[in-house]
Amino acid sequence: KLIGEKEYREKGLAKEATQLWINYGINNLNLKKIYVNTIENNIRNVTLNKELGFQIEGILRKECKVDNKYYDLLRMALIVD
Questions:
Q1: Is 80 exceeded by the pLDDT of residue 4?
Q2: Average pLDDT, stretch 2-28?
Q3: Is 74 exposed, middle or buried (0-12, 13-18, 19+ CB in 10 A)?
Q4: Exposed e or buried b for every residue in 15-53, given b needs 16+ CB within 10 A?
Q5: What is the edge-to-edge ordering of all strands in the sheet holding 69-79?
Q6: Which helix (H) or strand (E) segment is 58 a member of?
Q7: Residue 1 above 70 pLDDT?
Q8: Alpha carbon 81 to chain centroid distance?
Q9: How far apart are CA 54 and CA 13, in angstroms?
Q10: How many Cα neighbours within 13 Å face the side chain of 35?
């Protein structure tokens, strides 16, 4: 979920795209669990995932290095009942 062009950001496109692939996974692939990994400092993505029902289920400590700084990677999951 990366919107590269600034003029297309904050228009709900990432949320719409995420909802579409969740629906496809549930309805077409019969998935019972969907998970994503996101870097801890991407607060907007973490918040979006939580809004869509994902919960943090694990932390990979110091997993990503960006600009010579290490960040935790959050594993978030959506369980389909």
A1: no
A2: 87
A3: buried
A4: eeebeeebeebeeeeeeeebebebebeeeebbebbeeee
A5: 33-39, 69-79, 55-66
A6: strand 55-66
A7: no
A8: 19
A9: 18
A10: 11
Rounded mean pLDDT of the chain? 92
Q: Using an 8 Å Cβ cutoff, are 62 and 70 in contact? A: yes
Which residues are CB-contacts of 69 (< 8 A; sequence separation ≥ 6)?
none
CB under 8 Å to 64, separation ≥6 — which residues? Answer: 39, 70, 71, 72, 73
- The answer to whether 72 touches 60, Cβ cutoff 8 Å, is yes
Confidence of residue 7 (pLDDT cuts 50, 70, 90): confident
In SS3 terms, 39-50 reads as: ECCCHHHHHHHH
